[in-house]
Design brief:
By secondary structure, the protein is of the alpha+beta class. It has 3 domains: about 120 residues, 2-Layer Sandwich (Methyltransferase, Cobalt-precorrin-4 Transmethylase, Domain 2), CATH 3.30.950; about 60 residues, no CATH class; about 180 residues, Heat Shock Protein 90 (2-Layer Sandwich). Helices cover about 30% and strands about 20% of the residues. It is built from 13 helices and 18 strands. The chain has a 6-stranded mixed beta sheet. Strands 1-2-5-4 form a 4-stranded mixed beta sheet. Helix 10 runs antiparallel to helix 13. It is elongated. The relative contact order is 0.09.
């Protein structure tokens, strides 16, 4: 009664009845994205208690809406309040701790005072940057179409699981991304692929155009740090498979890599005219590259992934929000205990069917094997919204 007497505001919405599930879903999403709130069913605009005819059905429908019409699903907290007059109202408490939330058709809403408003495409990126970077891979892209995807790559991935998959002429990109891989949202008439879908299976030119923040800079310096003379730098664009292959090819132009530590040879003590090429453990470099592509915080628009090759080291620099990233978390990540920023991307990118012969072991393997190969322990730095791993050569 105290809430009702205060009337609608940013955290309270009053409904006479539950009659339009789509509008109710929008209202729940708006409250959840605005730090939570309450919806009370059975109260009119004049703040008078009218009650609901069938509170049991209202509760069942609220549970269905929260489970099926909202992503990620919300666990509703519902109370039915009975009055001496026999009238009953239903109160739904909404917790917004896992925002951002969106409706099933890929739309985001916020609540301003007693009104809800859809977040425009222009506002979406900056708003998501502020509230929750961890869900960026799941953001639907409303300007992306089926023509923006590399069907050959997508089909190759699908056929790797099922030799009896339908032939290419019958293959439906939107259905497969939406229903099989959960990389798109929308109904039968709408198709909103996610950021993860575009990064994994997009055509190279379209990924570069639609998600320029995903580009990676790879550079070779003549020295042991970034202040040395730059020899060559390229900007690697395209989907994740193309980026991985391009990065590895660039690295191999400037360094040697082996799978087993080479035996030490006797050498004459002379002044070398040309510095020897760095020699690295192949699987450590490959896994460090894969981790950089998988686990970057794409919500940080102004920080790009960079890979710098020096005379005696390779440095992998990734955007990673350090606000809230505690020192214990920095230590735990050395043992493989970490929260993946992009779990859907990681799940597909590391599959053999995607086309990359990925090593296993993650960062702990990189640290251990690189140390065994070169005799020098790799270094990890976490500062200024950047996560850095530095591998040393033999």
């Amino acid at each position: 009664m105290r809430l009702i007497r205060g009337g609608e505001d940013t955290y309270l919405e009053l409904k006479v009845k539950l009659s339009n599930s789509e509008r109710i879903a929008q209202g729940i999403v708006a409250l959840a994205n605005t730090d939570g709130g309450t919806i009370i069913f059975g109260v009119n605009d004049q703040l008078r208690i009218e009650g609901v005819a069938n509170p049991e059905w209202v509760q069942t429908e609220i549970v269905r809406i929260c489970r099926e019409e909202i992503f990620p699903p919300i666990v509703p907290m519902i109370d039915t309040i009975a009055f001496d007059s026999g009238k009953r109202i239903v109160a739904l408490d909404i917790d917004g701790r896992k925002r951002p939330y969106r409706t099933r058709d890929g739309r985001f809403y916020l609540r301003f005072g007693a009104e809800k408003r859809e977040v425009s495409r222009g506002e979406l990126s900056s708003w998501l940057d502020e509230i929750r970077p961890l869900g960026f891979e799941n953001i639907p892209l409303q300007t992306v179409t089926e023509e923006d995807f590399d069907d050959a790559l997508l089909w190759s991935f699908a056929s790797g699981f099922d030799d009896n998959a339908p032939n290419l002429n019958l293959y439906n990109t939107s259905d497969f991304l939406r229903k099989d891989l959960l990389l798109a949202v929308g109904n039968a008439d709408e198709f909103f692929p996610t950021v993860a879908a575009l990064l994994l299976f997009g055509k190279n030119d379209r990924v570069a155009e639609l998600l320029p923040r995903s580009n990676v800079t790879v550079a070779r310096f003549s020295g042991d740090n970034g202040s040395a003379q730059l020899i060559e730098a390229i900007e690697v664009k395209g989907n994740l498979l193309t980026q991985f292959e391009t990065i590895m090819a660039f690295v191999q132009r400037y360094v040697d890599m082996g799978k087993v530590r080479p035996k030490r040879k006797l050498e004459l003590v002379t002044d070398s005219v040309v510095a020897a090429r760095g020699n690295y453990h192949y699987y450590s470099v490959a896994e460090a590259t894969i981790n950089a592509l998988m686990h970057r915080d794409l919500a940080l628009r102004d920080i790009r992934t960079r890979i710098n090759i020096y005379d005696h080291a390779i440095e992998f620099i990734n955007p990673r929000r350090t606000n809230g990233f505690s020192s214990p978390a920095g230590r735990a990540i050395r043992y493989g205990i970490t929260q993946r920023l992009n779990p859907q991307i990681a799940a597909i990118f590391t599959r053999r069917e995607y086309g990359i012969n990925a090593p296993h072991g993650g960062l702990p393997m990189v640290l251990r094997q690189s140390n065994l190969y070169s005799g020098r322990k790799p270094e990890i730095y976490i500062a200024n919204d950047e996560f850095k791993v530095k591998l040393y050569s033999l």
